[in-house]
Amino acid sequence: MADRQLRQTKRAAAVLAAQLPTLLEPAATAGRQSLAHLIAIAEAITSALAVPTRTAPQSISQLLLAWGECKSQRSATICQVAHGCNERQLRERAASAIAAAQQALTTDPLPPAVTSFVGPVRLSDLIAGLTVSLGKLAQHFGARLDPASTQQALRALAVTLEERYPGHTIELRVPPVTAVQLGAFGEGPTHHRGTPPNVVETDPDTFWALCTGSLSWQQARDEHRLRVSGVHADQVSRMLPVIKH
User: Fold this and answer.
1) Alpha-carbon distance 242 to 26, whole Å?
2) pTM (global) more than 0.90
3) Does the pLDDT value for residue 25 go beyond 90?
4) φ and ψ at 229, to 5 degrees?
């Protein structure tokens, strides 16, 4: 099991290491704040990998929740990075930060858990969470993550829902990326074998928009971007958005 987890972490790290440099030019085009945000993400990777830990890690659900709660702190960090530097200097710092992060992510062996700025976390969860952050940043300046990073971010969001709402009442499907089973606030049947009677299916773009709060459940329903069956399936709307930052 440990070897399997390590292989999965190495694959996730390689995906993130490949994605980072592709966002440098779009961020530079978008301006100082976008560059500073990209720097903050890259430097967070390097800093965390420098501090491995044996402390019991928090879950990815707890990690994303903690990030949302320290939004003002993260904004202050980004402003501090941008302050006093022109765009050329910021671009150079971003390139350097990305190179350092890539080196850290491809170091062997990788630690199973690290100390992030919100506490101890499994490295695989930190990578997944930062991939979500990169997706949000890319969306801000009109770019998209590559397919491997997109899948990584969407799976992280689905796992977060699964952790926050455990159960077997609703099956949430995002083909071809992932599928998870969720509870229904104690109101629905608990299904033990096969497919639950309540199913929600949507496409990756809609799932991303719902999880990040850029699309409401009702709007997605009105635009026929959801396929919903079962009396409890609409309770997924109460679980969204996943992140509020």
Assistant:
1) 26
2) yes
3) yes
4) -140, 145
Tell me the two tokens of residue 115. Answer: 């100390």
Q: Is the pLDDT of residue 188 over 60?
A: no
The answer to whether 122 and 56 have CB atoms below 8 angstroms apart is: no
What's the gap between Cα 74 and its chain centre? 16
What is the pLDDT at residue 193?
56
Q: Where are the domains of the chain?
A: 2-152, 165-239
**What is the biggest distance separating any 2 CA atoms in the chain, rounded to whole angstroms?**
59
SS3 assignment, position 103 = helix
Q: Report the topology of domain 165-239.
A: Nonspecific Lipid-transfer Protein; Chain A (3.30.1050)
Q: Is the dihedral of CA 4, 9, 14, 15 positive or negative?
A: positive
Q: Mind listing the pLDDT tens digit for each residue in 149-177?
A: 999 999 999 999 999 999 999 999 999 99
Domains 2-152 and 165-239 share a fold: no
For 226, residues 6+ apart whose C-beta sits below 8 A from its C-beta are 200, 201, 202, 206, 217, 220
Instruction: Look over the chain and give the mean of its residue pLDDT values, rounded to a whole number.
Output: 92
Helical (H) or strand (E) element with 172: strand 170-174
Q: What whole-number distance in Å separates Cα of residue 160 and Cα of residue 166?
A: 10
Record: fold of 2-152? Four Helix Bundle (Hemerythrin (Met), subunit A) (1.20.120)
Query: Does residue 245 surpass a pLDDT of 80?
Result: no
Q: What percent of the chain has pLDDT over 90?
A: 80
